[in-house]
Design a protein that fits this description.
The structure is a homodimer. The first copy, chain A, is of the alpha/beta class. The first copy, chain A, folds into 3 domains: 129 residues, NAD(P)-binding Rossmann-like Domain (Rossmann fold), CATH 3.40.50; 163 residues, Dihydrodipicolinate Reductase, domain 2; 78 residues, ACT domain (Alpha-Beta Plaits, 2-Layer Sandwich), CATH 3.30.70.260. Chain A has 14 helices and 16 strands. In chain A, strands 7, 8, 9, 10, 11, 12, 13, 14, 15 and 16 form a 10-stranded mixed beta sheet that branches. Chain A has a 6-stranded parallel beta sheet with strand order 3-2-1-4-5-6, sandwiched between helices. The first copy, chain A, starts with 5 loop residues before the first strand and ends with a strand. At the A-B interface, helix 2, helix 6, strand 12 and helix 12 of A face helix 2, helix 6, strand 12 and helix 12 of B. Strand 12 of chain A pairs antiparallel with strand 12 of chain B.
Chain lengths: 429, 429
């Protein structure tokens, strides 16, 4: 075994940072055996030095400034766990690269926005910039795509990648409580980001999808090209009606290269309750990868939390300690393709929930508007109701979103709706 | 990109070998981009040179002798796809290592029997010996355990790892056909190894489990320590009765380190139909990994077939092309622990099917024998029957296999059975 340890500089001592310290300490001998070198922490940085974190950080050097930490000559790997797409996280990662230190990060926002530039910088300096912990927590999906399945052309990546959203949707289904009540519960339990819109607005999951797209298809990270929709509008009624028809509602990410460009969607979808994605409960994550030769690979595990995320950080650290050198996105950043976002998503069946005036001829207007827009109906039912408005469910045959939107506009314009129609895509998983 | 390609010597041109040739040829540019070097085939070897395989092998050098191929100076990686635990496969792998060539193989039997010696030889010569394709086909599980999850202590690995057995069991359930009829179908479809006992006897899956144990726990590969039981005795009646109680029967591998030693079992088990393992149908494989920090990771995909297995071979080749160097079992072979096989398996509930004489007092004898052996009954029922014998189902509370065997011996000795009792473990997955 080489005598020189791999030395870490750790910025950010929240849940994940503390998890990394715990794993490095308790598994020291095991890590040395596996990595071939000891893994040691040289210095740490965080907002508050004195806070009790349940681990003793006094044995490590302290830096107030993460940029100073990132530049230290006595570290080999700078571990970025502060988060945030700009500010100190970005400055420190840039400083680490400039100083020739490797970087391991769990920061999905930073890489989703600045990944291309940072990867180019890292490759120019021949240092590693790895981010397993940024996507789907403890699931080694970045490694699976960039290494294990690297012999394949990947045709599609799908996944449920925000545990908080899946918790909220599962809980709504199991309790019948509305979105607002369950959201409040999740906040109480500390499941939400400081800015909850990152979770429930689909932004966090969208960051992850954009990173997976890049490594799956060899395209430049394009977060702004992700068609984003959060779960805030999902109602218990929709969950119940979906369930009646054999579906569950999931915040589902789908990325695929189509003839129309790169399609990246992160939005609530109906998926068959019997599918692997439909069976996914609570905060668990799942990624489904379709490869040309390997077929379908499904990976499931905890998508967040101290242990799982720290496990992913350690995986990257061990790789670097072993001397593995791989480009950030699995091929040189300068060779990543610039593919335009698809202007239209792949046609799909849709679930529509309409709340209509309770009067003769109303349903005829709706079916006419759908027919005029070229949207054909697979199933339709008006279900029992107490309020003076008729709730009507429609499942369409496959249609484009444009045709559907055209139909919905016409239905709204015809004055038959008591409330705005709800439309949720049915994903063929 | 370095100008020098990575050159392969490919021995064995069956389904998988042809799959590797196809992937190397059709994905040449993609592989070069990802691996950083071109991947080329220098020479091939197989039993028959002239056979039509649907790929043109005349552009590659031919060797009649795989050992000569393995030793060639114009290859970097020897790819062993002939199979067999001894004979030419072993001789050729040893020759490759001795000549300083890396080795990638799909040969589980070879590594399950000779893995320790071969890994020591490879590490002494500083060449890679990798075997992703040997376990669970296209699922990158060796990589997940030895790399992605390497920061964790692993407490248990479970899995369904023989697609043929899972196909037979699924088909028996779906058609109600007996084992012999479905076995004949599988043979007709070409799903069985030349020696079918490798599949249905659990040997092939046992080889895979022994390899997973080594990388999960850092123990020496110990195939002879695997408690092996095939699926030949599973009847449609057991499948139907299990289903009635909410279970499916799977050929399930379980490996864990216990206070009593290394427990490795590959045997038919009842698993809850709602569990991920219970949902697994046809030839798909699944591996469930429990890690201390990461929690539970589940990996699913095709366990065999041309594309999936070739994909795994390519993953290893790309790693080597990228310059990744990892020990065969994730830590130096000389440091792998020698752990004795557990003399007793972890206690479990068992499903028992008894075929009893139809006479007064018989059931009392059975319950007495169970009670005397310390086996307590969770559920019991006698179900309707046509033949002059009473079929009785018992689900026990948790018990040791020794207590259960003691009870079954006593039941048999008491002369109440028309046929030998059937006992199948219920695995808490």
């Amino acid at each position: 075994m080489p005598d020189d340890p791999v030395r870490l500089g750790l910025a950010g001592l929240g849940t994940v940072g503390v998890g990394v310290i715990r794993m490095v300490e308790k598994n020291a001998d095991l890590l040395a055996l596996r990595a071939g070198r000891r893994i040691e922490i040289s210095a740490v940085s965080a907002r508050s030095r004195g806070r009790d974190r349940g681990v003793d950080i006094t044995k490590y050097d302290w830096e107030d400034d993460p940029v100073a930490l990132a530049r230290r000559e006595d570290i080999d790997i700078y571990v970025e766990l502060m988060g945030g797409e700009d500010g100190p996280a970005k400055a420190a990662v840039e400083a680490a690269i400039a100083a020739g230190n490797h970087v391991v990060t769990a920061n999905k926002a930073l890489l989703a926005i600045h990944g291309q530039a940072l990867a180019e910088q890292a490759e120019a300096k021949a240092v590693a910039l790895r981010f397993e912990a940024a996507v789907a927590g403890g699931i080694p999906v970045v490694k699976a795509l960039t290494e294990g399945l690297a012999g394949n052309r990947i045709s599609r990546v799908m996944g449920v990648m925000n545990g908080t959203c899946n918790y909220i949707l599962t809980r709504m289904e199991n309790t019948g409580l509305g979105y607002d009540a369950v959201f409040a519960e999740a906040a109480e339990l500390g499941y939400l980001e400081a800015d909850p819109n990152l979770d429930v607005g689909g932004i966090d999951a969208g960051h992850k999808l954009a990173l997976l797209s890049a490594i799956a298809f060899g395209t430049k990270v394009n977060f702004s090209g992700v068609d984003l929709e959060g779960i805030q509008q999902v109602s218990v009624t929709d969950i119940e009606q979906a369930s009646d028809m054999g579906f569950r509602i999931k915040l589902l990410g789908v990325a695929q290269v189509t003839g129309r460009g790169l399609e990246q969607r992160m939005q609530p979808c109906l998926v068959p309750v019997k599918s692997a994605l439909g069976q996914l409960e609570n905060a668990t994550n799942m990624v489904v990868i379709d490869g040309e030769d390997v077929g379908r690979i499904v990976l499931r595990g905890a998508g967040a939390g101290q242990g799982p995320t720290a496990s992913a950080v350690l995986g990257d650290i061990i790789d670097i300690a072993r001397g593995f050198r791989i480009t950030t996105f699995g091929q040189p950043a300068t060779t990543l393709a610039e593919i335009q976002p698809a202007q239209a998503s792949t046609p799909a069946a849709f679930y529509l929930r309409l709340t209509l005036k309770d009067a003769p001829g109303i349903l005829a207007k709706v079916t006419r508007a759908l027919a005029d827009a070229g949207v054909s109906i697979d199933r339709m039912r008006q279900y029992s109701h107490e309020e003076p408005a008729a709730p009507v469910l429609v499942v369409t045959h496959k249609t484009t979103r444009a045709e559907l939107d055209h139909a919905l506009s016409a239905i709204k314009a015809s004055g038959v709706c008591v409330r705005d129609p709800v439309a949720i895509r049915i994903e063929n998983v």
